[in-house]
Amino acid sequence: MLLNLTDLSSESLQSQIVRQVREKILSGELAAETSLPSIRELARDQHVSVITVQRAYEALLREGLIHSRRGKGFFVSDLKDNEKIGMAKERLRENIAPLVISASNEGLSKKDILETIDLILKKNGRKN
Amino acid sequence: MTKAFEFNSVVKSYSEFTLGPLNFSLEPGTVLGYIGPNGSGKSTTMHCLVGLIKTDGGEMRVFGRTTDPNRPEWKLDIGYVGDEHVFYEGWSGERNLKFLSQFYPNWSDQRVIELAKRFNLPLNKKAKELSGGNRVKLSLVAALAHSPKLLLLDEPTSGLDPVVRAEVLDVLFEVLEDGERAIFYSTHILSDISRLADELAFLDNGQIKLRAAKEDLIEHWRKIAFMHAGNNFKLEATASHKQEGADHQVVSFDHEATLRQLGELGAQNVQAYRMSIDEIAVQILKGVGHVENS
Q: N or C terminus of chain A: which is more exposed, having fewer CB within 10 Å?
């Protein structure tokens, strides 16, 4: 599992791991029942401490994105598409809320904001 | 579970300086960073644990065995890179290692060859002809060649170039993977250890001021900026407080408590910023009126 972790982000290493694994799961890059690297393997590969990975996996367990089987390790949960969409939407809402509020404070209308989102999607080649 | 090491009320006194009483331990599979300024007692702590100096009180154990000088089996579990690198100066690195190998049943010559290659260490040169960096590397090879269960590393990367430093950290991450080995790593430079360590203990003038899980420190500490017209109010859980007019800047070691209080006080424009582990360490060592031991 390839992750891109950096010390230069305002986001902690733990949250970077959570966010990147979550993305891989919600996008389907990691399919249901795929086994994740063990905590110690990932710590070694990514050069982070065991406790950092452990806390990141705990957060993913709480979100229901992964599950553990005794003695076997961690696996991607089998999520229905609508569950995945629901989680991704919730995540988007959390991330976008401060930006939308500050854009609105800076005088943008709902139409302006929606147009901007549309533009971003087009630029990245996403149609719908 | 048996601790990798335990200090129970260990004291070492000098005329001008006392270390301890130290009470702390380390679980197998974990890395404890031992952080403190020069002269705070980091090396002395290590010297006590490896039996280089006699303590004035207390007891230490390594994987359950007391550090009895008459029954030195506990030393077999330790790999130690000290603040001084002691070799037979007229001998080659290889001969020094060969000499050490006789004391360790688990010694692996293959591991020596592998590590020397990875660290780019010439084994045929005499110890006295080795550069400072190469002496550190030779110590590291000697400490790792018997695959010890406890690594005691006293500023192990000082004097190493960045490439070798990275290689040393690679080796340490590999060593940890089986979950049975523990690393006690002292440094005054946090960047080396900030990713490796599970826990940090902060030593100041012979006393451990704080010990905490690294992730808890990262979770709880914040720099908080806010506006408030009031003067002289005391905020909870803060390590420092600066004010210019109505602008305030505080460092909080429990941002939830501080933010709650700021809400009650009606502070405006409250912004909380994460802190790097280096920034947190500086705040802790500058002196916080707050001590928690785990």
A: C
- Mean pLDDT in each 10-residue stretch from start to end of chain B (294 residues)? 93 92 94 92 94 93 92 92 91 94 94 93 93 91 95 88 87 89 89 88 93 93 91 84 89 94 89 89 73 34
Comparing CA positions, the residue from A44, A19, A34, A97 lying closest to residue A66 is: A34
CA neighbor of B255 nearest in space, from B220, B212, B210: B220
Query: For residue B200, which of B289, B275, B280 has the smallest C-alpha distance?
Result: B280
Share of chain B above pLDDT 70, in %: 97
Per residue in B214-241, pLDDT (tens digit) is 999 999 999 999 998 887 778 889 988 8
Any CB–CB contact under 8 A between A49 and chain B? Answer: yes
Cα B109 from Cα B112, distance rounded (Å): 5
As a whole number of angstroms, the distance between CA B51 and CA B72 comes to 9
Give the span between the Cα atoms of A13 and A15, in whole angstroms.
Answer: 6
Q: How far is B43 from chain A (nearest CA, A)?
A: 23
Cα four-point dihedral sign B109, B111, B114, B118 = negative
Structure tokens that stand for A116 in this block: 């901007």
Q: Which two tokens stand for residue B272?
A: 């909380």
C-alpha B22, offset from chain centre: 15
Rounded Cα distance between B115 and B121, Å, is 8
Query: What's the number of CA atoms in the CB half-sphere (13 Å) around residue B3?
Result: 15
Per-residue confidence (pLDDT) for residue B294, from 0 to 100: 31
Residue B226 near residue B261, CB atoms below 8 Å: no
pTM above 0.90, yes or no: no
Q: Is the Cβ–Cβ distance between B32 and B45 less than 8 Å?
A: no
Please report the sign of the dihedral spanned by the C-alpha atoms of residue A12, residue A17, residue A20, residue A22: negative
Compare CB distances from B195 to A10, A11, A47 and report the shortest one's residue.
A47
Quick one: tokens of B55?
A: 């303590």
Query: Tokens 């405006």, residue?
Result: B268
**Contact of B25 with B199, CB cutoff 8 Å:** no
- Report the alpha-carbon distance of residue B5 to residue B25 in Å, rounded: 5
